[in-house]
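Batch manifest line 636
LIGAND: iron/sulfur cluster
JOB: complex structure
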Amino acid sequence: MVDAAPPSPNVARLDAVVAAHGARATELVQILRDAQALDGWLPPATITYLAHRLRLPRARVEGVAGFYAFLHLTPAGRYRVLFSDNVTDRMAGSLDLLDRLCTSLWIERGKVSEDGLVSVDTTSCTGMGDQAPAILVNGRAIPRMTPERVDAVAELIRAQVDLCEWPADLFAVADNVHRRDVLLDAIVAPGDALRAAIARGAREPERAGSARSWREGVPALPQGPAATLEEIKRSNLRGRGGAGFTTGLKWEACRTAPGTTRYVVCNADEGEPGTFKDRVLLARHADLVLEGMTVCAYAIGATQGFVYLRGEYEYLAAPLRATIARRRAANLLGTSILGQRGFDFDVVLHLGAGAYVCGEESALIESLEGKRGVPRNRPPYPVTHGYLQQPTVVNNVETFCAAALIALNGGDWYRGLGTPRSTGTKLLCVSGDCARPGIYEYPFGTTVRQVLADCGAERTQAVQVSGPSGTCIGAAEFGRKLAFEDLPTAGAFMVFDDTRDMFEVARNFAHFFAHESCGFCTPCRVGTTLLRNVMDKIHGMRGSQHDVDRIRRLNRLLQASSHCGLGHTACNPLLDTLKRFRPAYERRLQSLDFEPAFDLDGALARARAMTGRDDASAHLAEVDEDASAVAGRGQP
Ligand SMILES: Cc1cc2nc3c(=O)[nH]c(=O)nc-3n(C[C@H](O)[C@H](O)[C@H](O)COP(=O)(O)O)c2cc1C
Ligand code: SF4
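JOB STATUS: finished
ARTIFACT:
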């Protein structure tokens, strides 16, 4: 039996955890992760003790622990198995495998076994779309699940084999790089881009001089940083995390913002379902990522950097820390980098704990500060009021890689690649129905059709570009170009052949958004739940035209009143599939008239029989009040 009584905290071990993080409240998420590793969950006494040690209100510590999916306030089993639940995992048979594991271990999905040994459940996409279906066991990723691998996992759990003694090949994650261009092909020795940036300032003082006209009263930049910033601006590099903001302008705004300390944050949260390029960049090109961050620090005058790594990629943490340490030893991090007096910059790794919304840059900063990952009001933007309210650049992993290449080869070289409005190359994460899923690097402007041909996709019905928050296109649009001016993308490229039911694809995404809504603002919290319910109702063949209209009404509400991009984009996959694959919805609609989701009158039948009442007022009709009621409850 699971011991329900909270064990008393092991004070010495918790003290060691707190001490390892300098007893800093900003490290609360990391402290909770490490504390949880001691018992497999966070007992109430542990929360109380940590609150006491960090001098924080207990409610704050518990509130943070309760926010993140990978932190547990109740016992979760010594082995916690989570099946990745993206639509591509399902297409690869994840639900059958989950059932197989549950049957094999004699447990019910979502419950902890009676002996407290194991729990099995689902989680949002784990970033292994090219080797689906994937699972996490106590946070460790195991890709390419098959019935045989499920049986092997069940056996290891039954035998209570320590996770560190499980066969290494279970955890092997492949890179699956199928097309390389300037980024993946680049051979950059550690420090090369930095040396080029420093040398350019000395070589091209006149270009650096233009920095003086940025803003009145702001002191001129030293030549090296100014010339670096100038090259980034000339390159017209745009962020690879989704929004496509011009990187040079972001860096410049941060550089010129008033503040005592500047920060550089690498957004490696990579939570958008179907995206896994940052995983490969961090695994194989970590030096380039860190080089780009250091180039940024040089250009904006930052002294501290963070890599915010999604919890699902915990297996990358140790190698990344080793790369950081190696660069420190090589004087590529630390003080007086490459002998440049005053060029001081270091990087710390921060692990997320299972929250998609933490990819949003202001939520990410909140998480870095040891809080719940709730997006901030914007403006002010992180470039002026970021980490600890200081000027902060947040960029995607791929953006930093591109920045390092620009520092090395120059902005003119980079703007010669891609299209005028979308310079450079883009890494695509191809998954779903194709012969060769994996990473493909293309110059911007490449057509969807070209990618489909290269990855061996046949009889393709649809492509979901840039994940659930992106765009779903049908075959008529495969001539469109992957570029900010046509089809912008953060990288995900999910392929669906003509055997797939596009309604079910959209329903999976509706579940994703409802699950990942952080709940801070009512329109998104309730709106995404209503969307999910509408899709489930249609799935159950109980939908009507009224429900389809409701999706549109909810979209207007979410667009107008959501606090962050999650709410704004939650309806995208539904509207796109409705527009392009309407028959997939229509064949499920029971009628064109209103069909209630819940038969209220029927539910009251028993009460009527018991009371002997059958007059008109004993019969109730459901009122469809969702959108107006939600709107009435207002914004945050
Ligand atoms: C809900 C949500 C999730 C996001 N997730 C990520 C992410 O995982 N990685 C990322 O780089 N950007 C993500 N973004 C975008 C970031 O807020 C931000 O625009 C980006 O990190 C800036 O970097 P860039 O300019 O290099 O693209 C997300 C945005 C939203 C609204
Ligand atoms: S829109 Fe959704 S995810 Fe964003 S703050 Fe509101 S509730 Fe949270």
